[in-house]
Write a structure and sequence with these properties.
The chain has 404 residues and is α/β, with parallel strands linked by helices. The protein is built from eleven helices and 13 strands.
Length: 404
């Protein structure tokens, strides 16, 4: 089968959840099919990264993604006038539309795969694009990484500025409508979690067709390519690893720093919290009462976080905001890092019954407590006899690269 694979971010290096998802899907498909990759690229993407992907693909095509505050302001005005989603308008790039049309006009593709909702508008052009006479109409597949409307809704719930809160709620309603309608236009829709599908399904009106659910495929990788990272004895570092430009991750880190970390320091004054990820949120470096600045370390993006992963007693990877639908996508199985990983989140049910009180896990962080997690991750334990909450875990491959 000949597949046109559309991505909003270049799926390499493997330094963010969407890239990991897209890269391993791409590699899997390329084992049995001819795959052509068409991706947006940013100024930070390099020719070497494109060449790496070319070894799996029949061909790789790229289109520059250029953003600015001026462009965003214009897209916001367009969104308010037209009633369309701001995010979808922002990702509507004429150069990408032209490139999609050019590739579809060859009539060479049997299927178009849209990675994330943002690329759906380009995949749908296959319905109307001109093709060679006799060439088939490609089937359309959408990979839904998130219930996207919930991101804007939760931003609104946390926003104190009345105008920003109103705009976020408006965007959430627009996105919910767009998400339901768009999913219905695809032949197949793949979800990361069943919770995501149910969240979008709930936005459909009574009597309307159901939102497609062709399969639920968790984010995954290849753990066999990642060697175990040795841990330093007596480590007292807690490490968060995740893209902080993603709002649920930023909200989760802020909540942890404000409500959990002070309780940990009461028991372990020498503990250090290291936050690794792109674009740390404002306010994360606020003074913590009765603590010194060395207790909180903000690194930003790191191409190679391996030294920090070796020097930790607990590794908390991008689990997203508490209660976030589909949050399993951001979890890293620290089997490769050789450390303890607590999957639980606020509001989780204890397997023995009852809800975990907020911050209960703070009392279990002890110097040198990290123990290797083995197996697939879905049955990983945070202490003997008690399974961690969470359906699946995510393994980083190719050397545990940094987070972007």
């Amino acid at each position: 089968m000949r597949i046109l694979f559309l991505t909003q971010v270049l799926p390499y290096p493997l330094d963010a959840g969407p890239k990991i998802r897209a890269c391993y899907t791409l590699r899997h498909l390329a084992q049995q099919h001819q795959v052509t990759l068409l991706s947006f690229v940013r100024p930070t993407d390099t020719p070497a990264q494109v060449e790496h992907l070319a070894q799996f693909c029949q061909a790789v095509h790229t289109v520059p993604m250029r953003r600015s505050q001026v462009r965003d302001a214009l897209h916001l005005i367009e969104s308010l006038i037209t009633g369309q989603s701001f995010i979808i308008r922002r990702d509507r790039v004429p150069a990408m539309a032209r490139r999609v049309d050019e590739l579809l006009a060859t009539g060479e593709f049997d299927m178009v795969h849209a990675d994330q909702l943002w690329m759906a508008q380009y995949a749908l052009r296959a319905r109307t694009a001109s093709r060679k006479p006799g060439s088939p109409i490609p089937r359309l597949v959408l990979d839904e990484h998130n219930a996207c409307y919930l991101i804007a809704r939760r931003l609104a719930a946390e926003e104190r500025n009345p105008l920003k809160r109103a705009l976020a709620m408006l965007e959430s309603r627009k996105m919910a409508r767009y998400e339901v309608e768009t999913c219905r236009r695809f032949d197949r829709v793949v979800w990361v979690t069943e919770q995501d599908h149910q969240a979008v399904e709930q936005q459909a009106s009574d009597g309307e067709p159901r939102v497609p659910r062709s399969a639920v495929i968790p984010i995954c990788g290849d753990p066999t390519t990642t060697p175990m990272i040795g841990r330093k004895p007596g480590a007292q570092r807690v490490t968060f690893l995740g893209g902080l430009h993603y709002p649920p991750n930023a909200q989760g880190v802020l909540w942890f720093v404000r409500h959990v970390w002070p309780l940990i320091l009461q028991q372990i004054p020498d503990a250090v919290l290291t936050v690794i990820g792109k674009n740390p949120p404002e306010g994360i470096q606020y003074p913590i009462p009765n603590t010194q600045q060395p207790n909180l370390e903000i690194t930003g993006y790191l191409p190679d976080p391996t030294p920090y992963l070796a020097d930790r007693c607990l590794h908390r990877a991008a689990a997203g905001r508490r209660g976030d639908a589909g949050q399993d996508r951001g979890r890293l199985d620290v089997g490769a890092a050789g450390g303890q990983h607590d999957h639980r989140r606020r509001g989780d049910r204890d397997p023995a019954g009852g809800e975990h009180p907020d911050c209960r896990h703070a009392g279990r962080i002890r110097p040198g407590c990290g123990a290797p997690v083995t197996g697939s991750g879905s049955g990983a334990t945070d202490r003997p006899g008690r399974p961690a909450v969470g359906r699946t875990a995510l393994r980083l491959a190719d050397g545990l690269p940094g987070v972007g």
